[in-house]
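Predict fold of AbrB/MazE/SpoVT family DNA-binding domain-containing protein; 87 aa.
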Amino acid sequence: MKETGITRQLDSLGRIVIPKELRRTFQIEEGDYLEFYVEGDRMVLEKYQPTCVFCHSDQDLVEYKGKNVCRKCLQALESQTAQPEEK
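Predicted 3D structure, encoded as tokens:
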């Protein structure tokens, strides 16, 4: 893990400010969502990237019934529902 030498104090509401140079480096803009992970004894923060609920691709996503689905999986679902059921 690369050290930055940057420290920030937590305020009384539990907030911290992410330094501008880090936001620029990681292309984090106002309004972006961030995810928190725990890896061992470390807390990891990364920019949220929506993915397909089926294949986890982050390419060519559409929202289907409130879920992110890539077009490839959506086409597969549509082809399955278009086929008559076997008895």
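The chain has two domains: 1-49, 50-87.
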